[in-house]
Specification:
With 290 residues, the chain is of the alpha/beta class. It has helices spanning 24-46, 57-60, 62-68, 88-95, 115-136, 168-173, 177-187, 207-210, 219-228, 268-277; strands at 76-80, 100-105, 143-147, 159-165, 188-199, 231-237, 282-289. Helix 1 (24-46) crosses helix 4. The longest helix has 23 residues, at 24-46.
């Protein structure tokens, strides 16, 4: 199923915890948990294993994003299509002691790739937990990896959070929205949540630009699709917004850093101009399984 144009924006639902009066001890415990979570996240983000990753923190805002997604260190979390492991090197040490990190990869029965590419993806998934252990130095960490079509009945309903970082456009281009969002919903607990960060198409972008082929997707379409597949919107944020990005580049999102598509290393002026824009404008959305 591909993204379709959407005429009406979904309403934002605000969810805030309510605390009864006279529960000072309970609130103290919650405050302590929050401090523990903040300290553990700060330590993961500041870790030396991220030395080559930190330059992009200014664009990806990992601390703010993961707090918005309400990720806690004792949760079982899934990271969909972790790629080179930029977020993995934060998430795995953050939850790998008290919770569990699971890398989720494409359903190879659905992805329209040649067989050699499918073989490489299957091999990457099979060896990814060992990669994570090597990155983090946590040989006894709670790390695993699986293809979405490998999920068993025992996996169903066990995930607290699943996150999709900048890869929904690929699922749209490959006609995989249906299989993957269904799989993610099945994996999440009844109160589990789905966090999405995605390159955001301009509000007036036409269908050919806002459905994924250039990396940008309509925010309204993402919200409506998630709702169609059994999720309710609980929050949206401009943590990862970039008003300098016009989101209308001929070559798509890859015009901007870090790709600088169409330039050479010697094109210093052009690269400087694109760097001044920064990375893409991104939506940041949080949904709860209905």
């Amino acid at each position: 199923m591909r993204f379709a144009p959407v005429l009406a924006a979904a309403a934002l639902v605000s969810v805030a915890p309510a605390f009864a009066d006279g529960h000072a001890l309970h609130n103290d415990a919650q405050h302590g948990d929050a401090m523990h979570s903040d300290n553990a996240l700060a330590a993961a983000i500041a870790s030396d294993i991220r030395a080559d990753d930190m330059a992009r923190d200014q664009y990806r805002h990992p601390a703010e994003t993961l707090k918005f997604f309400q990720v806690e260190p004792d949760m079982k979390i899934g990271e969909y299509a972790p790629g080179g492991g930029w977020y993995t090197r934060i998430l795995a040490p953050y939850v790998g002691k008290e919770g569990e990190y699971v890398a989720l990869w494409y359903n190879l029965d659905e992805v329209p790739f040649p067989e050699d590419a499918k073989t490489r993806i299957a091999a990457r998934s099979a060896g990814f937990a060992d990669e994570v252990a090597a990155w983090t130095g946590m040989e006894d960490g709670n790390f695993s990896s699986m293809l979405t079509n490998e999920a068993s009945d025992e996996d169903a309903g066990t995930f607290d959070r699943i996150m999709i970082f900048r890869s929904l456009h690929g699922l749209s281009n490959w006609n995989m929205i249906d299989s993957e969002l269904k799989a993610m919903r099945d994996l999440l607990k009844d109160d589990g949540m789905l966090g999405i960060v995605q390159h955001r198409a301009a509000d007036d972008a036409d269908h050919t630009y806002s459905t994924g082929p250039r990396g940008y997707v309509s925010q309204d379409a993402v919200i409506n699709l998630a709702e169609f597949y059994g999720f309710e919107l609980v929050g949206m944020s401009d943590i990862n917004a970039n008003p300098n990005d016009t989101a209308d580049h001929e070559v798509g999102v890859w015009y901007l850093p870090p790709s600088f598509s169409g330039t050479e290393d010697t094109d210093t002026q052009e690269r400087a101009a694109r760097l001044a824009i920064g990375e893409s404008d991104r939506m940041t959305l949080l949904f709860r399984k209905k």
